[in-house]
Structures are given as structure tokens and as C-alpha cells.
Design brief:
The chain has 426 residues and is an alpha/beta fold. The chain contains 13 helices and 14 strands. The strands form 3 sheets. Strands 4-5-6-7-8-9-10-11 form an 8-stranded parallel β-sheet. The protein has a 4-stranded antiparallel β-sheet with strand order 3-12-13-14, with helices on one face. The protein has a two-stranded antiparallel sheet with strand order 1-2. This is Cytosine deaminase protein-like protein.
């Protein structure tokens, strides 16, 4: 009771009634009415902002906190480039065991929930080195946190599906088994790691066919470079997906991560891309902390997709996400999606109130839509799922965050997370 809502005047307070995990009613708060905070199930919000919960549209569950975990303390960054990140990660993966996978993954989910996250797409790698270790740990964590966070597991082929010593046969066999595991929601791959263009094409063809066959979401790490001399593979990818009759066969959401090569697109390219997508259910996910660290150079300052512009100007679907936490691909940052939105203020020069609210949507409702979940609007309405974050106000009144823009400009540390109408944080 007594909350501020994103779509209402900042001076107004509201009482939100929740029943069976959904918003049952929203009524104007009467300050003269008796305070009921002493009753079970009643929270006196004291003017705090209640907003739609946050979502990780793209986060790696198995590779988190490698730079902090004592087990991997010897694997520290010295060069800070992509090749070294791959090498360090492969060395770490050779040591992965269930205990550290569960310990690190559990910490990531716990911290994410404290920041306001109620849903996430969690990538876990499948290959000859780790087998199903990462996948099994991810599924265990999915079940463990079921009541507090929707953990969507993506069985992920980071390594080539058609290159390597055995032509990728081993990893294809493993992925074919992984997709049948209960708890796997998504199939993902990295077409750009193939050694030849033919392999890149076969990668998309194979993983898309497998996703269609088993009715899974599809998530592709695509065009992760800034080389203007290389034709973006996204054109061929959409052609393949249409040839697979993705729309006709009712394929699920297709999510494309990174796509840094597209930062060189002009308006004509974006118009052509929108036409190439057509009816395909596609969403792009920008991963600025990783992209800027791995891709941006003195010669090329682009680095990461301008997701707000992609949405507003080019009328495409997009979201922002954390990607990695505490490893050689992204040594900086935290599990807080709101930190990514705040970064976007300067990165995309999106400092208006409307721009900040759009950035919030990119880590909330638009992020949920990008992974195929019902998309929550910035407004909270009757009938909506009761998945919220309450931004606590412990400071002076003038420092309280009364709207989404203020939250994005200056993310508060104190938050309460609500999932299905139940507070999931202390």
C-alpha cells in the first residue's frame, strides 16, 4: 500500500492488491485510512516506486565469477583480448565440477534476484570437455529457484558444430541429446566460430532444424566482429530460417546476441534488414559491457548495437543484457541489469526522460519479450503478473526515486523483489 507507479503522477500514491499471483486491483491510496502494515500480507511501501521486474535476456551461468573464485585464481587477464579470453575460459572449463558450477551459479541467481530479476535466459555450454556438467548444474539450479526466478536454460554450443578435429560430430551428438533433457528451453550456438563460411551456414541450418524439431527457442551469437570488409552473416541467417519455414511451422522466438558488425549499418541497411526479417519472430540483444571490452578499439569506437535507435528509428525488437559477470570476457560489472540501462544513458546519448524509460523497458518487458516470455509494459495494470521490483527509499524525501527515469539515472541499492505476488528477497 502507498506505492508510486511508473505510469502515474509522481505525487500520487496507490494501493495495489495482489491475488493468485496477479494484480487484482489498483486504487488511490487514502492517507487517512488506518495503516494495515501490521497485518499478514500487507506491505506499507511508504511512497516507494513499484515497477515491473527485471530480466536477464542473456547471461552465462556456468562461466560467472571465474576471476573471483579461488579455484581459478591463477587464470587472470594479462592481454585483455578475445583470444586470451577464449584460452582462459577453456582452461577454466577443464576444471569445472558440479560443486563449483552450483556454487557460482547459485551466487549469480541470488544476486540477480536481489537486484530485481524474476526471469533469465541462462546459457550453459555443452561440448566434449564439459559434457553435460554445465547443463546438469543449470537444470538443478532452475529447479531450485523455480519459485523465486524463472530460469530459462539454453543448451549452448560455444564451440564449432562443423569445424575442429572431428568436424564437430561429437558436439552435434551431445547437443542432440541435450535438447531431449527435461528442463532445456532453448538451443544456442555461435556460428561465427566456424573456420569457413560453409561451416557457418551449416551451423545455422543444423541448430535451427534441431530447435524446430523439438519446439525450442533459438539463440544465436551472431556477427561478433567489426570488420567492414566482411559481409554480415545475418542476411544468410534470415534466408536459412525462412527456407526452414520457421513461421509456417510455428517456430518460437529467435534471439540474436552481439551482432556488433551491424553497428556499421546505415539507414538503408537497416531498412533492408527489416525487410529481410519479415514475419520472423526476431529480437536483438545488445551486450554493451562485453561488446565494448572485447570489440571497441582506438580505430573503431562503435563496439555495441545501439538498441534504443534500433527500436525507435528502425522499428525492430531489442533488449539489453549483462552477458558475463566476472570472467575474462567481461571482468567489470555486476549482475544488475539496471547498471546496463544506466550505462546506456551515456553510451547511446539517451538522457531524456522518455529515453531513460525506454532503457528500463530494455531490461524489463522488452527483455522478457526477447526470450519469448509475456511482455510486461511499463505501466502496471489489473490482471498483470505480480512480478515487481520495489525501489526502497531510505534516504531523505528529495532523494527518493519517484519514476523510472530517476531509477535509471541513479540506480538505488535497496530493492525488494516480488515474484508471483511473494517477496523473494529479505
Amino acid at each position: 500500500m502507498g506505492v508510486r507507479l511508473p505510469s502515474k503522477p509522481a505525487s500520487d500514491l496507490w494501493d495495489v492488491l495482489i491475488s493468485d499471483g496477479r494484480v487484482a486491483s489498483i486504487e488511490a491510496h487514502d492517507p487517512r485510512a488506518p495503516r494495515l502494515s501490521h497485518l499478514p500480507g500487507v506491505l506499507d511501501a511508504s511512497g516507494c516506486l513499484l515497477a515491473p521486474s527485471l530480466c536477464h535476456a542473456h547471461i552465462h551461468l556456468d562461466k560467472c565469477f571465474l576471476l573471483q573464485d579461488p579455484k581459478f585464481a591463477d587464470l587472470q587477464i594479462e592481454q585483455g583480448d578475445f583470444a586470451e579470453a577464449l584460452t582462459l575460459t577453456q582452461k577454466a572449463k577443464a576444471r569445472f565440477e558440479e560443486d563449483d558450477l552450483l556454487r557460482r551459479g547459485r551466487q549469480l541467481i541470488e544476486e540477480s534476484i536481489r537486484y530485481g530479476v524474476t526471469a533469465m535466459r541462462a546459457f550453459v555450454e555443452v561440448d566434449a570437455d564439459v559434457g553435460f556438467k554445465c547443463l546438469d548444474a543449470g537444470i538443478k539450479l532452475k529447479r531450485e529457484f523455480e519459485a523465486r526466478c524463472h530460469v530459462q536454460i539454453c543448451a549452448f554450443a560455444q564451440l564449432p558444430l562443423f569445424s575442429g578435429p572431428d568436424g564437430g560430430e561429437t558436439i552435434r551428438e551431445l547437443m542432440s541429446e541435450a535438447v531431449t533433457r527435461e528442463g532445456v528451453d532453448v538451443l544456442g550456438s555461435t556460428p561465427y566460430v566456424e573456420s569457413k563460411q560453409e561451416g557457418t551456414q551449416r551451423n545455422v541450418e543444423w541448430i535451427a532444424s534441431l530447435a524446430l524439431k523439438h519446439d525450442k527457442f533459438l539463440d544465436l551469437h551472431m556477427d561478433y566482429h567489426l570488420d567492414k570488409t566482411k559481409e554480415p552473416f545475418v542476411w544468410e541467417a534470415f534466408k536459412i530460417l525462412k527456407e526452414k519455414r520457421w513461421v509456417e511451422d510455428k517456430g518460437k522466438m529467435i534471439t540474436l546476441g552481439h551482432c556488433t558488425r551491424l553497428t556499421h549499418f546505415d539507414d538503408g541497411d537497416w531498412s533492408k534488414l527489416r525487410e529481410a526479417i519479415g514475419d520472423l519472430p526476431v529480437s536483438f540483444v545488445g551486450l554493451p559491457t562485453s561488446d565494448l571490452f572485447m570489440m571497441r578499439t582506438e580505430e573503431d569506437v562503435r563496439g555495441s548495437l545501439n538498441i534504443p535507435k534500433l527500436i525507435q528509428k528502425h522499428e525492430l525488437h531489442g533488449a539489453l543484457a549483462v552477458n558475463n559477470v566476472g570472467n575474462a570476457f567481461t571482468p567489470h560489472g555486476s549482475c544488475d541489469p539496471l547498471a546496463i540501462a544506466s550505462l546506456g544513458i551515456g553510451l547511446y546519448q539517451t538522457g531524456t526522460k522518455a529515453g531513460a524509460e525506454l532503457l528500463y523497458g530494455c531490461i524489463s518487458g522488452r527483455a522478457k519479450a526477447a526470450i519469448g516470455l509475456p511482455s510486461a509494459k511499463l505501466e502496471i495494470a489489473e490482471g498483470d503478473p505480480a512480478d515487481f521490483v520495489l525501489f526502497d527509499n531510505k534516504g531523505p524525501e528529495w532523494r527518493s526515486r519517484r519514476g523510472l527515469a530517476e531509477v535509471v539515472y541513479d540506480p538505488p541499492n535497496l530493492r525488494k523483489t516480488v515474484k508471483n505476488g511473494h517477496i523473494t528477497t529479505d
